[in-house]
Every structure is written in structure tokens, then in C-alpha cells.
Amino acid sequence: MGMKILVVGSGGREHALVWKIAQSPLVEQIYCAPGNAGTAALARNLPLDAHHIEALRDFALAERIDLTVVGPEAPLVEGLTDHFRDKGLAVFGPSRAAAEIEGSKAFMKDLFAKYRIPTADYRVFEDAEAAKAYIRYQEPPIVVKASGLAGGKGAIVCRTLSAALATVDRLMVHREFGKAGERIVVEEFLAGEEASFIALVDGERVLPLAGSQDHKAIGEGDTGPNTGGMGAYSPAPVLTPELHDKAMAQVMIPTVRALAAEGRPYRGVLYAGLMIDEDDDLRVLEFNARFGDPETQPILARMRSDLVPLLLASATGSLEGMAVDWDPRTALCVVMAGNGYPGAYERGAPIGGLEQAAGLEDVMVFHAGTKMDKGRIVADGGRVLGVTALGDTATQAREKAYQAVRLITWKEAYYRRDIGYRAVAREEEAAEEDAR
Ligand code: AMP
Ligand code: GLY
After folding, report:
1. pLDDT grade, residue 412 (50/70/90)?
2. CB of 228 closer than 6 A to ligand 1?
3. What is the whole-number distance in angstroms between the Cα of residue 410 and the centre of ligand 2?
4. Which of 133, 259, 305, 335 is the most exposed place for a label (fewest CB within 10 A)?
């Protein structure tokens, strides 16, 4: 009998996970809670949301689910995996104590300091006036972050001190991100190029996945407020083999050892957001306790290995000797969002052309905020689609992805037209050098 797998979450990342898991010969049935219109085609969507931890656990027990895979951070930070493991259920993801690495930036930064993991200089504050008194003596730009979870929107890069002071008020006084802003981290601004270093961890061992880069800002040229992510691609040209080794030696392995030493052994996805400067020095901007969204879409589009044994090995502490086989091509994902995101946006507009777009060769259309309404697929969230394409180069992957985007008919759509510009520029530079 094949395995029964439950995927928790409803975003593009979860559709990509379901899509990849569905290709495993080990798997018989997939459930997704709550899922979206995309997962519904491959899994049975359940009317349970990621916060209904007890109901999810009862479902997993009753249906004899062989493995539960948790997509988003919130249920991890709320202790979903602890509840499942208590009942003997296999679950992919860190414990509540280990997920603090994402759930509390204050915890993460203090861990970096204690174990000398390279990161930006920082101070933690629980009092707005104290934070402001400190900021007045800093040099801009400066970064102000809510310590708790804020959906990828809680880090604000401030170009001036007055903007930083106003941000402290937004987070601590007006509580724009609720309890997440009870504590804030104020840190030094780091210049450079970012990369996402995502690995599977089994408590001790670190199995890196393909490198990737995402575009967090809403606007072209990486301008404007941060979002969950407006596009991503893999591989990340900035992550050379040397930098990959450096990231393993200076960041990933020390962090996994540090968490074990702190009595919080880490199992699941460990995702480091790295900043790489001109001298190829790297520092950690953040850790996430889950797969990146949208990075997972291009990463899984390139993964040739069966994902299910890898997830099981991470969940059970047996990653030793495992390896991952990758498609050498580039995958690139363009996120289509509701107009207005990350602010207010409309829901309910019908979306057409999805089959035509997905029908192109090497194109996958991952759904995020979509649902079925009277037999039609309609927009139902901020980030709505992740149009992903493979190509021999980043330039070709990008052309293909935008070709697919243009086939999608949805009036309210907003998307960036410059996803992958750094990778494309590198390819253009390399071509010019070759021509010389
Ligand atoms: P975080 O949620 O901490 O990853 O921050 C979200 C985004 O804000 C990062 O991906 C960066 O683009 C930006 N950011 C955060 N911290 C810094 C920093 N210290 N220097 C420069 N940019 C930063
Ligand atoms: N794409 C950024 C994140 O998943 O946090």
C-alpha cells in the first residue's frame, strides 16, 4: 500500500510540494489543508486551516497519515509538530523550540552572537523610547524589524533616522504587526546581494538544496515595501561553489550544532537568507524554519530526485548518505499578485488562460491564493499565481515564464516585469566577455 501524505498550507509553496509529492511512486493519496484550486487537482483539499492543530492531528490519526509536511511557519511556531510527535505521527518540520529561530528574531540574533555566526550588528528593544534614543545616535540607513512573525513584511529598511523613528512607532505603538512588534530588533544595514540557502536538516546533518534568489520588494528594481516574495529563480549565480562551502561552514553547520547544544535539535527545512558583499563575505539576515515561498517553486521544478524519501529522512534523523539530483537548467518563477498587494487588494476576479499557460513546454503554473467559485477559478489572496518555467539559461527561463504570464487573463493582476534581472545581467556580461 502506498503512503498517505498530508500537506499543511495553502500557498504556492504548498502547491509545488503537492505537485512534487504526487510524482513519487511511494505515494497513494495526498491531502492538503486547506489547499487552493491548484492543489485540488492533485490532492483532496480539507476544510481545515493550518491553525487547527488538534483537528489536523485527529485527522492524521484517523486516516493513518504516514507523513505530514508543514508548509508555513505559523503552525510550526505554534507547536504543530510537537503535538503530532506526541501521538507517534511522522511529521516533517521543526519542533516549536527549534522553530524559534524564525519565530523570534531576538532569539535568533542572540544565538548568532553566542555562537559567532556572522550577522549584522544589532540591539533588541522592548521599549519604544529606548529604541528611539539608540536610533538617534546611529548612521542611516538602518533596519528596524518586528521580532515576531509578520508574514515577511516585518523588516523595514529605513533610509533616514526620522523614518526609523517613525517605524518604531508603527511597530511598537500602533502595533501594525500586532504582538510581533512587542519586541523589535534594530540592526545595521548590510549592502550586497541576497541569496536563499535552503537545506534539509535531520537534527545533525545538513543536506543543502539548490541555491536560489528571490525578489522581496513589490516594485521593479527591488523598490518599495517588502512582500512575501514577488519572484524567484534557481540556481543563484551569486552562490559560487566557494560561497556555498563558506555558507555551510560558517552558517549552516554551526547553526545546527548551536541549536542541538541549546537542547533544540533541528529537523526540517532550515532556510538562511544570506547577504553577500563585494568581498564575498557573507552574513545571515534571517533564518526561516520552512521552505521559501516562492523559492520552492523553482527549486522543486529542478529537483529530479523523489522528494518523499528526503522528507522522511529529515523527519526521522536519517539523512546520512542521501543526495539530491538536480536538473542543471534554470527555473524562474514570476508571482502574479492582486493589484494593491501587499496592501489591500480585491478578491473574486475570475482568472482565465491557466490551461494554455500550463500547456507550454517546461512551464508550471502554481496556484497560491485561488479558489473555485461556481466552476471558475477566481483570485482569493494577495499572491495568487507563481508562473514557473525552465530554460537553458536564466534569460531563456525568464522569456518562457513571461510568455506564460501573458497567456493568463486576469484584470486585477500585478506582477514585476524584471524577475531574474541580476542573473540575466550576469549572463549578458559573460556573453560580452566571450565576444571580446
Ligand atoms: P528579514 O525578514 O529579516 O529577512 O528581512 C527581509 C528583507 O529585508 C531582507 O531579505 C532584506 O532584503 C532586507 N533586510 C533585512 N535586514 C537587512 C539588513 N540588515 N541590511 C539590509 N537589508 C536588510
Ligand atoms: N521568499 C521569502 C520567504 O519565503 O521568506
Report:
1. confident
2. no
3. 25
4. 133
